[in-house]
Amino acid sequence: METWEGLPSVSLVPTNPKAPQMSAQDSCLSLIKYLLFVFNLFFFVLGSLIFCFGIWILIDKSSFVSFVGLSFVPLQMWSKALAISGILTMGLALLGCVGALKELRCLLGLYFGILLLLFAMQITLGILISTQRTRLERRVKDIVMETIQNYHAHPEESAAEESWDYVQFQLRCCGWNSPQDWFRVPSFSSNESEVHRVPCSCYNSSATNDSAISEKLSFPHLSRLGPPARPGHNTDLCAVAANSDIYSEGCARSLQKWLHNNLISIVGICLGVGLLELSFMTLSIFLCRNLDQVYDRLARYI
């Protein structure tokens, strides 16, 4: 009977302890790579949608209003902002997608640098808002009072006025300090009557069922087609008497209440965006620093 004592023993389990560690690290890098790709692909699609909405508003605002179902939104002012934001989001997401999928260190480094710059800008903006709060409030008040004083003075340039109408409509307020801010506006002054007038956005539609005023609240200048009205025509000026059912509170106080009620949501959104940027920066720099190891192992396997 033959014996196998002289033969060397063969183990089916790898004796090199580094082999499973290398395999686990490769799997981790692959996971990070595809996570970075998928997340940036999502933001690329999101940026494309934002860009398309911005272009849609620029080309045909009336159809967008009917599609969304909003009749009172300062769309023209924000359409360019939406388009630019969409392009920037698409460009940044494209850097992350291509850099992660193709494992290109230069693109990953550029992606990390842009995210770091955005994060630093947000931190700086937060510090400036907290330290320069009084100056910022004074500047906002000056801009609002200038917008009120020049209301409808140039009908072809109504973006700021539409935005302020939207603020009054949403916050249920009138003027900055009070409705009396509108009493000295030339557009609402009339020599024929001593009754003061205010914009239709000051009208409290919930206090009455006046259908004539409710129809004016749709603001014809938001849905008009063709070129803007000439400066000499005031066909788009919507006004109501100040002694009617209007909001009595100024928007300065209403804005403070809104910020106080939504402070947690605002802080949560800012923290969420910051954490998302930090996560993407961590993934990109980790993948970028370990590309040399990936290349060495690929060369070894080949």
Describe the structure in your own words:
With 302 residues, the protein is an all-alpha fold. It has a domain at 136-216 and 238-301: Cd81 Antigen, Extracellular Domain, Chain: A, CATH 1.10.1450.10. Helix content is 63%, strand content 2%. The protein has 10 helices and 2 strands, in the order ααααααβαβααα. It has helices at residues 18-59, 61-68, 75-102, 105-131, 133-149, 159-171, 211-216, 251-261, 263-289, 291-301; strands spanning 197-199, 239-241. The chain has a two-stranded antiparallel sheet. The longest helix is centred in the first third of the chain and has 42 residues, at 18-59.
Helix-residue proportion:
55-70%
Stated plainly, the CATH topology of the domain at 136-216 and 238-301 is called: Cd81 Antigen, Extracellular Domain, Chain: A
Supply the number of helical segments. 10
CATH homologous superfamily descriptor of the domain at 136-216 and 238-301:
Tetraspanin
The gyration radius over C-alpha positions equals 30 Å
State the CATH class of the domain at 136-216 and 238-301: Mainly Alpha
Strand arrangement, major sheet: 1-2
Structural class: mainly alpha
In total, the number of strands is 2
Distance between the termini: 45 Å
How would you sum up this structure in a few lines?
The chain is mainly α. 63% of the residues lie in helices and 2% in strands.
Which secondary structure elements does this structure contain, and how are they paired or packed?
Elements: H1 18-59, H2 61-68, H3 75-102, H4 105-131, H5 133-149, H6 159-171, E1 197-199, H7 211-216, E2 239-241, H8 251-261, H9 263-289, H10 291-301
Antiparallel strand pairs: 1-2
Helix pairs in contact: 1-2, 1-3, 1-9, 3-4, 4-9
